[in-house]
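Q: Two folds, back to back.
A: First:
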Amino acid sequence: MEFDVDAHVYRGNGIEYPSVTTILKGGMEWVDGKGKPIPEFVIKRAGWIGSQVHAWIEDHQLAQLEFRPNPPIPDHDKIKMGIQGYLAWLEDLRKQHSSIVWVEQEVMVASMEHHYAGTVDALLKLDDRLVLIDFKTSNELKPEYDMQVSAYHHALVEMGQHEPTEARLVRLDKKRGTWEQRVRSTADLSTDWSSFKEKVHEYEA
């Protein structure tokens, strides 16, 4: 499975899959808190900052697994704050759990039955529970994010790879260096999955 950044689609075995985020966006325009359209350059800049934070987190997780020093933190205020939020979140996890194990990072998943694909940020084992983690650097935890992680969860189960007992949406604040999270139980994920399937039908119509 490969991801085409420009086309924003996944390709595997000669089949093209739309991304989960493309299905959820559904051609809608990005707007700010006042309902005004957000300029394209602002969206791209925010996306670049988010990708840099995600890349550092992935490198940090690999450093933990390979017992090597942590990667240097970039000298960019918003990227630095995003990373600071992640490290604060991780420290809180260590206080709450006796065992924390990074199982996989950047896991590409696809549902052949429902025809979509996406990338899971991380799978984390907290004590005896497998948890799906999705990091966000947006200004808020939007409702559609719940459907996004439910789609990832369903694809993982369909592929027979993993079956997380919950999903956590973790927002890293790029201005304050803080974090917030929303936990989705298996019951929540089931409800969110029903909503996502409706989005798939709308996208394919």
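A: Second:
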Amino acid sequence: MTDRIALELFVSDAPTGRVTVLPLSEGQWRSLCEDGHRFLGADEHRQLRSLAELGRFQAQPNTHLSILAGDGRRVLVVGLGKRATTASLRDGVAASVQELPDTPSFEWSVVVPPRDPGGPEVEDLLRAAAEGALLGGYRFGPSRPTPYESPGPCTLVTSLSGSQATAIAARARALCEGVVLARDLVNTPAEDLGPIELSNAAVAVA
């Protein structure tokens, strides 16, 4: 089966690259405002708090807050709502991809949020973050070699062990490859997807 998703995924215990994406629930955001964050310096913490007060940012769904750190790195806080769920995390990370340039050399990181009380396990949150990163760059365009565009390599920052996290990311990629293929088939005009083309697509994934 030909890979349709160009994005490279890595796992680590610390962010790398030019953009750090911080998906946070409302409670996690309040904790950041009060106590800071292990991947933010004091100046970045003050910037975020000041901007949040001006814009009344509260980490609600479909909202984000961005600052430029002193070292030129960008920090993008993505709101997940009252609780970090797999759906809100997947959607939030996918939306963050739209804020990034689709150039292969652009490296970025997603810090997988901790588990909220009563929320999904850390393993499920990592899978959702990986799916959001992998699917966020989907574009349908039959004139291109692949209908998928993305920024450069993405590092998923997690507390899980390297081997466990790598296995979860690999399973997420396999699932997303199938999702992208299904989207391509649905989006292809009927005149371009007859029985022969559909049969060829089935053989390609067999």
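Q: And?
A: The beta strands are 9-12, 19-24, 64-68, 74-79, 108-111, 154-157.
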